[in-house]
Predict the 3D structure of the following.
Amino acid sequence: MLPLLLLATLSLYGADPSGPKLESDGWRLNAAIECGNAANLSRAGTDHFALAPREDPVPVDVQKTGPISNYVIHIEITNLQSAARTITVDVMIPEWLIREKFDYFLRKPYLVRTPERLDYQLVPADRQTSLPDRVRIKIDFAARERKILATTAAYPYSVMRKRLREIAANSRGKARVREIGRSVEGRPVLSLETGNSARPRAIFMATLQPGEPSAWAILSMADAVTSKPELARLLEEYDLAFLPMTNPDGVVHGSNNVNGKGEIVLVGFTHAIENKPGMHEAKVLWNYISRKPPEILIDFHFLNLPNHPLPRPYVFDLTLYTDAARRSRTEDMLRRLESLSSAPKGPPIRRDHPLWQHLATFHSIGKWNTIATLYQNTGPKTSHQQAEVRGVELMRVALDPKFSR
């Protein structure tokens, strides 16, 4: 059973799909956009504004033990005047994050892009100042220019759908996009399928935590395996499925951990398997996974964090495996993934862990001896460009026992 406080969180709260807007001093700040996340917009002075991340409906006591909200910022800023200007933005850090030393979520380097392109660029270090309770950012604007300010390189749902179609079209009939179900709010949950349907299935899916934009990695895997000649043999050896966005409502709303009903779907698979109420997207995913139980299942997570451990795979208790050959293959894959990440050997997560025992990967191991892990691509050197490279490397490690970087 999930902890009682977490159970209450999963069922009693909802997500607000809209964000605040503010217009002042010839500036417009708008969080009511796809992936938008900001709250408490206010004017702090001339050309100077303050905002805070919009919190998921997850109590602090739950976040202290995980999964903590990722505290993202994603806001569009427009210079409404016909002259170049500079705006100052203060991102306020919740007091409890500072007290509990989780404030690194908002102290990391910030990114900017134009609304028309996903070409995120770092805010220069000399334009970002870390103060005791906030991060102060200065951004230059041309006349009537629009920019998006973000803590992480969010991948919009609409762009993901377009990119999936492009990969399928460029595959020359080797791949197809399949709707596997719908989200709470009715958005299609999509899988790109390719490979040999007569062979064992391997599934690579993005985390259900929308604040960790793993579409960067999953889409790069799908593109590589369908376009690179050196990977063509993997299409003969495996029935492949790539799910780049498993919680589309959460992504659209700019949430950190929850879906459109305020549920932490990541830890909802025990409920899904037992056919209990709630955890809608977990049910959609589990139904899809169960149709052809996978030999390999990778759950990809991604965040750039300045003082977080190295990227690494989660190591579940290997006694979960009743098949000795699968246990050996899993241990080999884990060691090679640790080598890929330059990470030390990880201690196993106990089988009765109060949260992680409810993951899709955990249940897949217990039911089917699936070679499974959650890959945590976090750390100070990660980026969306690095995630694209790491995604392909991880896929090759998982599918090819002889591959090493």
Observations:
- The chain is about 30% helix and 25% strand.
- The chain has a mean pLDDT of 93.
- The longest strand covers residues 296-304.
